[in-house]
Amino acid sequence: MNELQVSWDGQRHSFERGQTVRIGRSTDNDVVVSDPSVSRQHAQLAWGPDGWVFEGLGRAGTFLRGGAVTRLLVGEPVELSLASPLGPVVRLEPSRPANGAASPGSATSVGPEASGGFQGGPSPGQTLPAEPATPALPSTPAGPAAASPPADWGAGAPPPPAAPAGQAGPFSTAAMPRIGAPVRLGAAAEARDELASAVQILVPVRSWLTDPGWRQGLRLLVIAYALLPLIFLALFASSGNLTTPGWAYSLYVAPLWGVAFWLLIRPPEPHGKQELLIGLGIVIWVMIWMSVITININSALNPKSLIGALLIGFNEEITKALPILVAALGLLKLRSVKLDVRMWMFFGTIAGLTFGVREASQYTTIAIEHIAAAAVNHSANAAVIGALSFAYRVFVDGFQHAIWAGVAAFFIGIAVNYPRRRVPLILFGVTIAAVLHALNDWYLSNFSSPWPWIVLQAFSLLLFLGYTMSAASIERRVRRTPLFRGESMIMDKFSETGEQPRA
Fold first, then answer.
1. What is the mean pLDDT of residues 245-250?
2. How do 21-24 and 31-32 pair as beta strands?
């Protein structure tokens, strides 16, 4: 048997004599080469009198050892590059030399630069009996015109006249069999094929969808933040609850602030499941405590008086500080584990963001009502104020609570790790946050000029950023100072063994 083995990308196909083997990008080919640079119907192989003959069909081209080929008598194993010299490689392996006419090494191209017949075929002047059922093609002179058969030779065209006796041109029966003669694509079809190949190269959607880069957190975050506002519109457009936009957009913004705080604070490793559970517990604590205690206490206080504003400030900062303190002491007492103060500072920002999301869901209701009233009264100024108030609550409220809670949590972390001045350190940290919080609420309730309020926010931010930059150095100095370290069972243990406490 004169079999042909065709291999590509680790796949091997076997074909018998008499079969026409089609190669290309389209899935209806016998050998599918799924590369966007390859033509849909790129090439075909057919059995001829002298063996297997490769014929290029598409406009993308085929290359043998860097040179372009259009036709090839396959007399020995050969590797062809499709579309370019560096394109996908197809290996052709005939089972044996064809009829003994082609000797090893006779895989020979016939292109515009070639003249006469295939190597291994009849020599000029030699005639071979044509197969009865296969009329011969007319001979053509050597040169560029000999590179391809007549343009009108295709499906449904009458067979061309036989070649003159004594001549064996490149399209004679011996050199180019009628069996399996390629059907040329029309100019429009070739143009469409070329355009499709270009699109697949320039917009490789299939390769994008299988790219492992989709699992990177940053790309997933970008996708979520691009689509969530549209999803909000689809889900909540018919909602009559005015707290819904506050919840939706506060939850939308809070993770971005969380990422920013993580990058600013940079808690040291290791961190894993334990820290994740602590963060989740803090979120649950703040939500429940706010609903049961904080809101009820605040409703009985007047933020317009300085005393009332101070009480509100302490009430809200204690709400955020308590879960940090409970988690730190519980981890120390139950597992004898101390975390770096920067980790507790980050947990403080999580508590603050949670508080801000819950609070924004209530305050944005007031902002939306102002916008609605302004629309009824045709007051553009009131509408602008209402819109800005909504944006402030959504984008900034959680951030403000986070930086105050982060400062308080820094001192809680110092107090838990170095307990000699534990109570004063906790009170000092919570008091700083509560006073800044109280001044913020009191000023907003009594004055209209925003500039002193902006200065207050800038000072709060200065404290927070200062501690993010110097948290590690402050902890090192506290560790060396007996004033803070005192009688610490954990520190004494590490001092005796020479080990360092877990960061």
1. 91
2. parallel
